[in-house]
Amino acid sequence: MDYTNLQHFSSLKDALASIFGAGVNIVENRRISGGDINNAYRLTLTDGTHVFMKTNSKENKSFFLAESAGLAAIAQTNTIGTPRLLCTGTDEQKSGYAFLLMEFIGRNGQTRNYWETFAHQLAAMHQANTEDLVADRTYGFLQDNYIGARIQLNTAHESWIEFFRDCRLEPQLADAAPYFDRTDQKRASQLLENLDKFLVEPEHPSLLHGDLWSGNFITGNDGRAWLIDPAVSVGHAEADLAMTELFGRFPQVFYKAYQETAPLQPGYEKRRDLYNLYHLLNHLNLFGRSYLTAVRAILQRYVS
Predict the structure, then answer these.
(1) Reduced to 3 states, what is the DSSP secondary structure of residue 50?
(2) Cβ atoms of residues 112 and 225 within 8 Å
(3) Is there a contact between 27 and 44 (Cβ–Cβ < 8 Å)?
(4) Nearest to 12 by CA among 47, 48, 41
(5) Are 215 and 234 in contact (CB under 8 A)?
(6) pTM for this structure?
(7) Residue 184 bears catalytic tag
(8) How far apart are CA 149 and CA 295, in angstroms?
(9) Where would a tag sit more exposed on the chain, N or C end, judged by fewer CB atoms within 10 A?
């Protein structure tokens, strides 16, 4: 199944004319700060409509195709908000750039019980049916995507533990090899060989946001938490929960509410850092040695 069904245009002008009508022009193009991969803008149109646009080089249009597929998959669970997708495109009229258009989300006040509602909706997303998200298997996704600026493999597997080993830890550990000494390399190999001693298969497969930290949700037009910038796959729900604890935890009421809706399997706290090893390795491979100490500490914790 195609999880975007978005039109792809050969120019921004054609995209706006098709979506908003002939004669609609951009009257203001305001740069929005934030993000280190794509450029972001608020477009104001002739009729006062605001549109959110991301751009990158035309060679990187796959970023937006992957993002739109992930957002569409989340949206089709009908559990939690995401910005409405408008289109993708590659504009050749100037220097050439790829773009993604979405609805613009203004500054909105949070509803009462914001964090509890967020937790309940995320748990509902994790419990949604995933049968048509992976071809012929249980874990993975219909296509590869990105974690930050790095390719994220989503090859279908029948086992979650094997998927996490083959498509998450192993590629990151291989690319991190130049940072590792012999002890690091030995521990990495032992961890991969014995991963089934530390992880468990989930009670049911879950659609994961995949990169769920505080920068990847916003307050939507309804005053509730909406998910953005996904790195989706089908996996174990606790991997999403672990990521929320990596760079500063969400409020405690969030975790209490999540457990009320979808209790975690026993031993989650012992597995949490292993899930976050993937993200720390990704940061090591993207940004350098400042993440090596954290990576080593987790390797040592699981493999002495």
Answers:
(1) strand
(2) no
(3) yes
(4) 41
(5) no
(6) 0.95
(7) no
(8) 19
(9) C
Q: Residue 243: CB partners within 8 Å, gap ≥ 6?
A: 210, 211, 212, 213, 275, 276, 279
Out of 2, 132, 144, 211, which one is annotated catalytic?
A: 211
Task: Using alpha carbons, select from 252, 247, 238, 243 the residue that is nearest to residue 278.
Answer: 243
Instruction: State residue 295 phi and psi, 5-degree precision.
Output: -60, -45
Can you spell out the DSSP letters for 144-210? -EEETTEEE----BS-HHHHIIIIIIHHHHHHTGGG--HHHHHHHHHHHHTGGGT----SS-EEE-S
Taking the CA atoms of residue 7, residue 11, residue 15 and residue 17 in that order, the dihedral angle to the nearest 10 degrees is -140
- pLDDT in 10s for each residue of the chain, 304 residues: 455 678 999 999 999 999 999 989 999 999 998 667 899 999 999 999 999 999 999 999 999 999 999 999 999 999 999 999 999 999 987 678 999 999 999 877 899 999 999 999 999 999 999 999 998 899 999 999 999 999 999 999 999 999 999 999 999 999 999 999 999 999 999 999 999 999 999 999 999 999 999 999 999 989 999 999 999 999 999 999 999 999 989 999 999 999 999 999 999 999 999 999 999 999 999 999 999 999 999 999 999 8
Evaluate the CA torsion angle 70, 49, 55, 86 in order and state its sign.
positive
Task: Name the amino acid, one letter, at 189.
Answer: S
